[in-house]
Design goal:
By secondary structure, the protein is an alpha/beta fold. It has two domains: 1-39, no CATH class; 55-203, Double Stranded RNA Binding Domain, CATH 3.30.160. It is built from five helices and six strands. It has helices at residues 2-16, 22-37, 86-97, 127-130, 176-203, and strands spanning 56-58, 62-67, 98-100, 106-120, 135-151, 156-171. A four-stranded mixed beta sheet has the order 2-4-5-6, covered by helices on one side. Strands 1-3 form a two-stranded parallel ribbon. A hairpin with a 4-residue loop joins strand 5 (135-151) and strand 6. Residues 1-37 have low confidence and may be disordered.
């Protein structure tokens, strides 16, 4: 009887010294990643005014903004969860940058697309990928618009097509704040691209940008 008890004790001792099973290791890694992201600070809200976009004095008497963009409320679209809405962000940019400073004419901005999407990425396979913080989703922001200039004095007119986008991937350990920070970063980058493109294209036209 004493021999059986001694054998059982030795078996338990050896079992306790066995390497930790792989699922347990993965669980501990996941818990560590969650602990690191649980205290992630809140992201800075997107603001056109804080972006430093300088006003462009344009040879037009007024600016008209047409919002033809759609905002689906089903996956993968998440634009309806953003504040401000992506299309409204483009409108705010236009109001701040496209500054009417002429005695006649009209500048028209027709916003045709302002979308934010979040798409799930296919998981990687293999032991190495199981122990790493994989990229879980892709965030993408897309802006498209048409900028039209109508100047009756001299009968001048022009149309510019604008398109800007930016995307990033986010790891599976990302907190809600991390995801929102990625979205805000994409919105800022795409808007900066739209601004840069609009300035470059308007500069190619004669008598549009006033000194």
């Amino acid at each position: 009887m004493l021999k059986r008890v001694f054998s059982l004790a030795m078996h338990m001792h050896m079992h306790m010294q066995m390497p930790m099973p792989m699922p347990m290791k993965m669980l501990m890694v996941s818990l560590a990643l969650v602990a690191c992201t649980a205290t992630s600070p809140a992201p800075v809200p997107v603001s056109v005014k804080s972006a430093g976009f300088e006003a462009l004095p344009l040879n037009a008497r007024q600016l008209e903004i047409i919002e033809n963009w759609e905002m689906p409320i089903k996956p993968p679209y998440i634009g309806h969860l953003q504040q401000p809405y992506p299309g409204n962000l483009v409108s705010q940019w236009a109001t701040q940058v496209l500054m009417p400073a002429g005695g006649s004419g009209e500048m028209i901005l027709d916003i045709t697309r302002a979308a934010v999407t979040k798409v799930k990425l296919p998981p990687q396979t293999g032991l190495a990928s199981a122990l790493t913080d994989q990229q879980d989703s892709e965030i993408r922001v897309e802006f498209e618009a048409q900028l039209m200039w109508l100047q009756p004095v001299g009968g001048s007119q022009a149309m510019i097509k604008l398109a800007a986008s930016h995307s990033v991937t986010i790891p599976e350990s990302s907190s809600a704040n991390d995801v929102q920070r990625a979205v805000n970063g994409c919105l800022n980058k795409a808007l900066a691209g739209l601004d840069s493109q609009a300035r470059a294209e308007l500069a190619k036209l004669d008598n549009v940008i006033l000194p």
